[in-house]
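ok, trying the design again with the full structure, not the truncated one.
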């Protein structure tokens, strides 16, 4: 049973072989727990064997220290699930610094790039021979 209501929202979609994650609002540990559960189900149900990950954090407002640590520890799952490249889109350097612990964890599991836009991130994903067109 969650200790508090989940704060923070997310959305997942596939853009070809690229998992597009959108993060909204300020996150607590309960939001991270729901995200982790839903993300694993989503990827296990529909992922290609190798895929890229784009985290769009332009509408993210940060996370509690507990949620940040839990996400940093979770990042190894991406590699075991088939992710081969990671791009992150932040609204500012300040928000990128807020997520520094997570960024360091992602950098240990595969190539990572901080991008200014979704278009830049998708273009970079093509370097890994990943299809970047939306599946119909």
């Amino acid at each position: 049973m969650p200790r508090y209501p989940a704060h923070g929202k997310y959305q997942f979609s596939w853009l070809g072989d690229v998992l597009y994650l959108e993060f909204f609002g300020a996150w607590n540990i309960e939001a991270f727990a729901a995200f982790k559960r839903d993300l694993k189900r989503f990827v296990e149900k529909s992922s290609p064997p190798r895929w890229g990950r784009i985290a769009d954090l332009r509408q993210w407002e940060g996370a509690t220290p507990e949620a940040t640590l839990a996400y940093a520890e979770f990042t190894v799952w991406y590699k075991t699930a088939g992710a081969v490249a990671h791009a992150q889109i932040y609204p500012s350097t300040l928000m990128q610094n807020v997520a520094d612990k997570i960024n360091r964890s992602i950098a240990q599991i595969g190539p990572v790039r901080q991008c200014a836009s979704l278009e830049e991130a998708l273009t970079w994903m093509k370097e890994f021979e990943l299809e970047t067109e939306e599946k119909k």
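Keeping the full-length input from now on. The longest strand covers residues 51-63.
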